[in-house]
Specification:
By secondary structure, the chain is α+β, with helices and mostly antiparallel strands. 41% of the residues lie in helices and 16% in strands. A 3-stranded antiparallel sheet has the order 1-2-5. The protein has a two-stranded antiparallel sheet with strand order 3-4.
Length: 134
């Protein structure tokens, strides 16, 4: 297999999506996987740092709305919820619906609870977790 160029990597359609029925809203939504940048931004927003620069706690405020705002897209893959006001309005929707959709968004984005804990510096390591490139 040949090595890829930057242009080939950039042109690859690698984002997954899933259309999910939302009977409470009278239709369906498209949930697309987060980009690497979106995922990193989401994780950074989810961590509250202390005055010592170390992770202090996980920010749960509007957690479902923040995830879904990055993942709910139209047929062209454009985000539907972009502004803070739109994200807040999404967060005001029924929590059960938001949680159900957020689970899909997390799954298609590879965003597990372990990944959130890693971002917050709370993941436990074992002796077998270290690796070396020597």
């Amino acid at each position: 297999m040949a090595l890829l160029t930057a242009e080939q990597i950039g042109a690859a359609a690698d984002r997954k999506f899933e259309d999910v029925e939302v009977p409470e809203w009278g239709g369906s939504v498209r949930i697309q996987s987060m980009s690497g940048t979106d995922r990193n931004s989401h994780q950074a927003e989810s961590v509250v740092f202390g005055t010592n620069g170390r992770p202090k706690e996980v920010n749960l405020r509007d957690q479902y709305a923040r995830i879904l705002a990055r993942c709910i897209v139209d047929e062209q893959g454009r985000r539907l919820f972009v502004t803070d006001r739109q994200v807040a309005a999404l967060g005001a929707k029924d929590a059960t619906v938001l949680e159900r959709l957020a689970k899909v968004a997390k799954r298609v984005s590879g965003l597990t609870e372990e990944a959130v804990e890693d971002a917050a510096g709370k993941s436990a390591t074992t002796d077998g977790d270290s690796s070396s490139t020597d």
